[in-house]
Amino acid sequence: MTELDTTVLVVDDTPENIDILASVLQDTYKIKVAINGEKALQIAQKKPQPDLILLDVMMPVMDGYEVCIKLKANPLTANIPVIFITALSDEENEERGLKLGAVDYITKPISPMITKARVRTHLALANQKKELERQVAERTKDLQRTRMQIIQKLGRAGEFKDNETGMHVMRMSHYARLIAESVFDGPNEWTDLLFQVAPMHDIGKIGIPDKLLQKNGPLDEREWTLMRKHPYFGAEIIGEHESGILAIAHEVALNHHEKWDGTGYPNRLKGEDIPLSARIVAIADVFDALTSKRPYKEAWPVVDAVELIHHQSGRHFDPNLVTHFKSVLPEILKVKEKFADPGSQYLEL
What we know:
The protein is α/β, with parallel strands linked by helices. It has 15 helices and 5 strands. Strand 1 (7-11), helix 1 (15-25) and strand 2 (30-34) form a beta-alpha-beta unit. It is elongated and about 90 Å long. The chain starts with 6 loop residues before the first strand and ends in an 11-residue tail after the last helix.
C-alpha cells in the first residue's frame, strides 16, 4: 500500500481544527472527517476503513476517551491506530489515553512537521504489524494443514488393514463435525478439534492381527476379547494429555465403543460419563461403517442405517445426539457422496 492509498480519519468538533490537520496531510493521504464521536465510530466501521485515526479529546456528548474505548472494544475497529490530538498536555491525561489503547499524543497547537512524522511512523508500524500477522496466519495455516495430513495418515494406518481406500476416516470425521456443529449451533474451536482427531479413533487397530480384521466370518469369543483391546491400544499410542488436540484424540480412541446404556467397551461407561467427543464419533463411525462395503459385508442402504441408529437411541447412542444426527443428515449424505469409495454405489433404498 502506498501513502496515497492510505486513509486518515480526522475527528474534531471544531471545523477550523479539521481544516488545519487536513491541510497538513491531504497531499500525502486520503482524508476523512467526523465532527463528533458517533460519526467517527460509523466511519471507522465502513469500508474502506481508515488506516489511522487522529482523535480530538475534548468533544461534547462523547469525548475522545469514550470514542477510543468503543473503537478498541469493537473487533472491526480495534486494530486501527489512534493518535490523540489535544490541548491537554499533562502526563496524567497522556497516560490515560495510552492505557485506553492510543498509540501516541500530539498536543495543540500542532506542528505540521511533527504531525507528519508521527502519522508516517505509526502507519509504518501498523503496516509492519499487519504483514507480520499475515505471515503468522499463513504459517499457522501451513502447520494446521501439515498436522491434519499427519493425523489423517495416522488414521489411515489404523484403517489400512480392514478398509481398502481409507475414505472412511475422511467421511466419518466430516460427519462428526456436522453433528458437533449442530450441538453447538455452529462451528467453534472444539468442533474443529473434533474434526481433526476423529480420523485417529481406530488407531489402536494397529495392534490387532490382520487375520482378525480381515476375517470374512464372525469372530469367536477369544477373537472378540482381543478385538476389544484396540481402544486401549489407541489410547496408549496417543498418550495422556491435559488439554488440546491430543487430549481429545485420547478420549475418542479410548471411548468410541462405549454405549449409552453401559453395555459397551472397554470400560462399560454409561450415559454422560462417556465423553461427548466419543459419543459423537460413535454415531459417525457406525453410520459410515454400516453404509460402506467391507470385506465381511455389503453396504447397507442409507434408510436402513438411519433406522438402526434411531432404534439404538438410548441404547447404543445418546438420544440427544441421534436427534442432531438426523437434523444434519442431508449434509452428511453430501459428504458421503463427495468422499465415496472408488467403485461404490450410493444406496438410498
